[in-house]
Amino acid sequence: MTSPRASGAALTSLVLAATATLAGCSAQGPGGTAEASDGVTVLASFYPLQYVAQQIGGDLVTVENLTPPAAEPHDLELSPAQVREIGTADLVVYLSGFQNAVDEGVESRAPEHVVDAADAAGLVEHAEETEEEHAEEGDDHGATDPHFWLDPSRLAAVGQAVADELTAVDPEHADEYAAGALRLGQRLDELDQEFADGLAACQGATLVTSHAAFGYLADRYALEQVGISELDPEVEPSPARLREIGDLVAERGITTLFSETLVSPKVTETLASDLGVDTAVLDPLEGLSEEATAAGDDYVTVMQANLAALEKGLVCE
Asked: What is the pLDDT averaged over residues 226-235?
């Protein structure tokens, strides 16, 4: 299997002019809401999009995250005040099809300036299908995987879309937003190279995760993702599915099953114990806790921690 990294060169060409680090963190009040500011107000629906807007806008923007720290974004419910904010923010950045409440808010409030990350990221289907699921679903070939941000190159593409829309909102600072996009692209390109180098000996390795959230990461670095559950982490795997995983672990000599933050590890830990293998934790980066923020963590540092876990847990050459 070869690594699909051809687009990395394009990312590098975008960032040759950038060298500085953008101080992009916006002041936040309790529960992830932003403090008052005279700058451009950006409403992000969950953490990776918040990170992008902060890195590109820097001190020129105030970024508000609709999803509270460390909360499960799939389960988000918006207050009436938050729905109103969707209509009054200068820019709304969201991912259609990921959070129903946000989709409904965008439809009802029709903000003037919107970035739908699904358009820039190029979403695809990843969830594998068991024989029994195929029999039940007929011609339904699976759901689109929303977790694009686990491929740094796709997050960089969304960053460019955010910079373009910020320029439309605030053309006076177009150069600053363009520079922010270049800096973000450079940092994500560096992260992409870290993963490529760190996982170079792991091409073709099987990545068994508690649910199928890491398809974009697996595609980017030539891994094979197998989810104990599929895209919906709330769906319990069937006994037949657990037997399939057990057979796969034995056949391929897999030594580690990966659970995730924000999702109960019980099923993964029980299965690993039954199979006599180890467990490790990956962070799908759907949210960032207040403790992690206070410790100075962000998208890049959490992804680097994921890389370390993969290097240790995967069966590589």
From this structure: 78
What domain count does the chain have? 2
Output the pTM of the full model.
0.83
CB distance 306 to 284 below 8 Å: no
How many other C-beta atoms are found inside a 10 Å radius of the C-beta of residue 83? 17
Residues 173 and 225 in one domain: no
Q: What is the mean pLDDT of the chain?
A: 86
Token pair, residue 213, equals 């959230």
What span, in angstroms and rounded, lies between the C-alpha atoms of 307 and 201?
Answer: 13
Same domain? For 143 and 251 the reply is no
**What is residue 231's predicted lDDT score, i.e. its pLDDT?**
62
Query: By percentage, how much of the chain surpasses pLDDT 90?
Result: 73
Last residue of a domain, one of 195, 217, 243: 195
pLDDT, residue 35, reads 42
Q: Which domain holds residue 166?
A: 34-195
Residues 75 and 211 in one domain: no
Work out the pLDDT band at 46, boundaries 50, 70, 90.
very high
The token duo for 259 is 């659970």
Residues 228 and 303 in one domain: yes
pLDDT of residue 127: 59
